[in-house]
User: Fold this.
Amino acid sequence: MKWMIVALLALAAGSAAAQAPAPAPPATPPVEAAPDDEGEAMPMAPPSPDETIKGLLGEDLETPADGYQYSSLGRRDPFVSLLRPVSATSGGAASQRPKGPTGFLVQELTLRGIVRTADGFIALVQGPDGKSYPMRVGQKLYDGEITGMDGATMTLNQRYTDEFNRPRVNTVKKSLYPSEEARQ
Assistant:
């Protein structure tokens, strides 16, 4: 028991010595001197490490006020899907997309309800603008079209371009009940 107490005291003394403040380094003499108007050399302070790094990178290292900023340095963003079109802002597509349902992406739609009429089913869909739109089978979207509907689901064909630039079609089912959508 005594040897444990002695060991703990030795350990505490060693850690206290390790935490003792180190002596201050001696002041460094100025590295460069620039002549003033009268020909006398005036001492200049060496650049700070932050200034040196900013000078080497050639860009401002300040983080923007809104948080993180991704600097690609010529590489593609790893968080952007290879399937195109991805979003309303990818590659300037936002200005080229038409207004209304024909400008919506399949992934932007939320199925809110389905109504049965004498002519068939009508889906009530919420778009990315927060408004609701009635849609029928055959309705064209920006990257697909509605191909089928029943009492609880809407089936869409989504057109996209794969990583080898080949056109592909993906069948997407939107359900009124999200738990069913996860099972498929």
